[in-house]
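Reopening: Cystatin like 1 still failing for me.
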Amino acid sequence: MGVGCWRNPLLLLAALVLAARLGHFQRWEGFQEKSTSMKNMNSTLKFFIETYNNASNDTYLFQVDKLLRSQMQLTTGVEYMVTVKISRTKCERNGTRNHSCPIQNKKKLKKSFICDFLVYTVPWMNYYQLWNNSCLEA
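Support: Ran it again with your exact input. Result attached.
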């Protein structure tokens, strides 16, 4: 074994440092408004609204009414910074979770929020984590 076995890894390390100094590695560019996979976006929106409904004390469930803005950033997974309009549905919390809950149309029961949230996901592992969330009445 001697010094010879260390020569190649040290050369590789020196080449990597030199390439990084010369800017040959693309840096993460931060959040970008890029077209995202609808499959990933739909699962992210589903995760958000389920998390919102689980934390809410409202009698009725809410659903995403409209996607207003979506930005993504690649890190060790994917971070989505999203703005949505959510609205109260006719489905009650303790009722059966129906995927086709119509939006509430009775004037006294109508309620909508504009929500900004940040979700970290590793979609290929089906892992989601809500990092930030704020909603204002619309």
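The chain has two helices and four strands. If you still see a failure, please send the error message rather than a screenshot.
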